[in-house]
Write a structure and sequence with these properties.
eight-stranded mixed β-sheet; DUF1023; alpha/beta; 368 residues; Rossmann fold; AB_hydrolase_fold; globular; 13 helices; DUF1023 domain-containing protein
Length: 368
């Protein structure tokens, strides 16, 4: 049998969809068995299929990690690659990749915290610090989809917190409108900054993410099974910068944007974003250190007066250990920056209302 031609990496999702639909069932099964890493990584293929491919690929990688363990680090790369292949050898010799893959596997294998919703592994990549796109709920059959983009340190250090935030948003939406299906995607399809300075002070990580994020959203549009879904972008910290710059550069096909604790979103006014100022939402906690971010390379912080976003309420959060004040960092600054999804924070109610399209239930700051 002749080898099946596979679309190149980065192909337009609509063309990928057409290619996949033209294949016979046997051809699809063969590709899933032989090239799961390619099938799982293509925007334009149904989420259920990508999940199946990526889980198979992840299982094979974890099994290889169990077999080789630390001895893989001690072998010359060429020798290891001759045994397991170059891609697997790179994974086995990179400790951070092994750690992040175990975290990823443990999370998607745990029982779902929301009745009727399952985890879907839409994409993962072991290059750089590692990338992963995980959903709670299937975007292809959902009425509402929230695409959550995390910020700095997201690859490994913040992975568990970000998965928990994804779960919280899915649960919040389900509890407020059980008649509608809502999926939440944690999109880490980019190389996130590894430091506050200089990395997170630069727009280059967001600029580098623009094409990938645009292609992912386009993929959600073409694999949707039914009427157009409502897609809302939710960015935390530098993740907001990623969303804003991607929209500035590519004009994302989305229905709303939520910026949480954002340093800047690549534009100077909300009406410069494709959804229009009426569908741009933002919040920042009073003690969040991000408030001190000056206007600059990342654009205007969206909670600044004159930006034009709708500013919704959020709760104050607790205090950080006293010793941080020795370095000029207010005690509550870090907890405030990471506390928007804490239990009981009104920010969660507001985000859920926006994702569900219940704009009248969003509590705005009194100045608005």
């Amino acid at each position: 049998m002749a080898a099946i031609s596979v679309p190149p990496l980065g192909e337009k999702p609509l063309l990928v969809k057409s290619w996949w639909e033209a294949l016979g069932n046997g051809e699809r099964l063969g590709l899933l068995a032989d090239r799961p890493e390619r099938i799982g990584g293509m925007d334009g293929i149904p989420v259920e299929v990508r999940d199946r491919a990526n889980r198979a690929d992840l299982t094979a990688i974890l099994e290889a990690i169990e077999v080789w363990g630390k001895k893989a680090e001690q072998l010359p790369f060429g020798q290891l690659a001759s045994e397991v292949g170059e891609r697997m050898a790179r994974i086995l010799q990179k400790r951070a990749s092994r750690q992040s893959l175990r975290i990823l596997s443990d999370w998607i294998e745990r029982p779902s915290p929301v009745d009727g919703l399952a985890y879907f592994l839409i994409d993962f990549d072991v290059s750089g610090d590692g990338k992963a796109v995980v959903a709670l709920g299937n975007p292809d059959i959902s009425d509402n989809v929230a695409v959550f983009v995390p910020g700095a340190f997201a690859a490994v250090d913040e992975a568990l917190d970000d998965y928990a935030r994804m779960d919280a948003m899915a649960g919040d939406a389900a509890s407020r409108d059980g008649g509608k299906k809502t999926a939440v995607v944690r999109w880490l399809g980019y190389d996130a900054p590894d430091s506050i300075v200089p990395d997170a002070a630069s727009p280059r990580f967001a600029e580098n993410a623009a094409v990938s994020l645009d292609r992912f959203i386009a993929g959600l549009r073409v694999t949707r099974d039914g009427p157009r879904t409502r897609i809302t972008m939710v960015g935390h910290s530098y993740g907001s910068t990623v969303i804003g710059i991607a929209d500035r550069e590519r004009r994302l096909s989305v229905d709303g944007m939520v910026f949480v604790g954002a340093p800047g979103v690549g534009v100077v006014q909300a009406d410069k974003l494709s959804v229009g100022a009426e569908k741009v939402w933002a919040t920042v906690a009073p003690g969040d250190l991000i408030i001190k971010t000056p206007p600059g390379l990342l654009g205007i912080p969206p909670c600044k007066p004159g930006f034009g976003a709708k500013i919704f309420t959020c709760a104050d959060t607790g205090r950080q250990p006293w010793f941080l004040s020795m370095f000029g960092i207010p005690r509550d600054a870090i907890k405030a920056h990471n506390g928007y999804w804490n239990p009981g924070n009104v920010a969660r109610d507001n985000i859920a209302a926006i994702v569900l399209g219940h704009r009248d239930k969003v509590k705005l700051k009194k100045s608005q």
